[in-house]
Amino acid sequence: MSRKYEGIIVLNTKGTDGGVGDLVSVVSKEMEAEGATIADVTDLGRRKFAYNAQHMESGHYINYAFSAEPSSIDKIKGRLRLNGHVFLQYFQRKS
After folding, report:
1. For the chain, what are the domain ranges?
2. Could you tell me the pTM of the whole model?
3. Where does 3-68+85-90 sit in CATH, by number?
4. ∠ CA(10), CA(92), CA(34), 5° rounding?
5. 3-class SS at 22?
6. What is the dihedral of CA 17, 20, 24, 26, to 10 degrees?
7. Percent of the chain with pLDDT over 90
8. Strands laid side by side in the 86-93 sheet
9. CA dist., res. 72 & res. 15, Å (int)
10. Tens of pLDDT along 16-59?
């Protein structure tokens, strides 16, 4: 049974040749490869962190609204953990 989820992904854009759009599409493809169906992608922009984390002062926040099987969430997290441009990821089930 597919459920609706919302995910916040913080991207590290340092040292990237392409723009943020390229990174967003790469993350979307990785999520879809694990069975997610993306409904909406919202670019929330660059935001400064409260403190420097891993030598980063800010990150680019992207909000993903998607539907997926509950077992796919762990697979998506594992796959995005391997992507060097994904700094932080948080997923929440929507009611």
Report:
1. 3-68+85-90
2. 0.90
3. 3.30.70.60
4. 75
5. helix
6. 0
7. 85
8. 37-53, 56-68, 3-11, 86-93
9. 30
10. 777 899 999 999 999 999 999 999 999 999 999 999 988 889 99
